[in-house]
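Table S2 (text version). Query chain:
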Amino acid sequence: MSWFEHYHIGKRDLKKDNHWQNLNGVNFRVTKPTVLCFGGNGSVTPQSANYMCRVAQSLVGIKEPKHENEIATTNDVDFIGIAYSERHFLGEEAKSELIKNIFEPLYLGADGTPLSREQILKNFSLINFFAHCHGVEEVSTLLMRVYCKMIESEIDQQTAKDALMQTFSVCYAPIRPLSTPGLQVIPEKDEVIRGGPIFAEISSKFLEKRFHDKSSGKGTVAYKESKNVISLIVSDMSNFYNDEHAIDFIERDENWKIAVKRSVAYSDNVSKAMGVALAYAISNGLQNQRSEHWIPKPDADFFLSKIKSMLSHVQNNLFAREIEKIQHERNDSIEL
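Corresponding structure-token output:
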């Protein structure tokens, strides 16, 4: 079976027709800060993979260079889209190929021996993920496989864990929580994933209380779901739609304005917050690419402060107090 029969992989390229270049998964290598884009389970064509890349690119506003020596342009960052087989997920052959060709060169040299710890951490800082719904499940599975492969290659457990902690994910309407550092945006009005991602204890309790009490408050709330994962719950992305699961609610245009004007409620603020988080993660990769030494990715508190800054006045203080109460109850039960 050839690569294009069991999945599709391509690159967002504004110079190409339809701004898309099909790639051969066997030959592709990560050489610069890269955003790997995984859509929902309906992403089974190059067009759908291209669209995910387009949305990710719009969030950070990266464009073609206009001047010489300009940085943080399309020359410096790759947006790579993955589309699934007709079974709507990545099969074993596809996962093995992606791990071998995208991730293995990040921790093994050409001779098959492990790279130095510092080089491995620098290399993994180039990797970012942008995911929607089922895409988060694919990312989590891939990263778990990568971890196991690193251990099999005789890389110590701490280095393997620390390497994954240098990646960063930004996702919308996730089916499950992130397994590595990142931001997950949870729309309350999601008819596909009601009640938020499974196993996200704090978010689930907050949403359960909201739905049970039929609370009328509106706005956003951002907080730490875990040590490395930030959750952002939004009551309304629009003032019109009852189902806000679709990824196009967050897309931005050429002028970094919200692209789809569907009687906007909080989608503009949420989209900006996602873009800023992804931009800082990409920036860390750019810094590492130019540095002789590894520069650690900022911690979750740093990202949370930037996200809250972008949300600004749309943050609901009552939501925040309820989240704090849930967090305290959770911590007390853990201590017991």
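Notes on Table S2: The longest strand covers residues 78-83. The chain has a mean pLDDT of 93.
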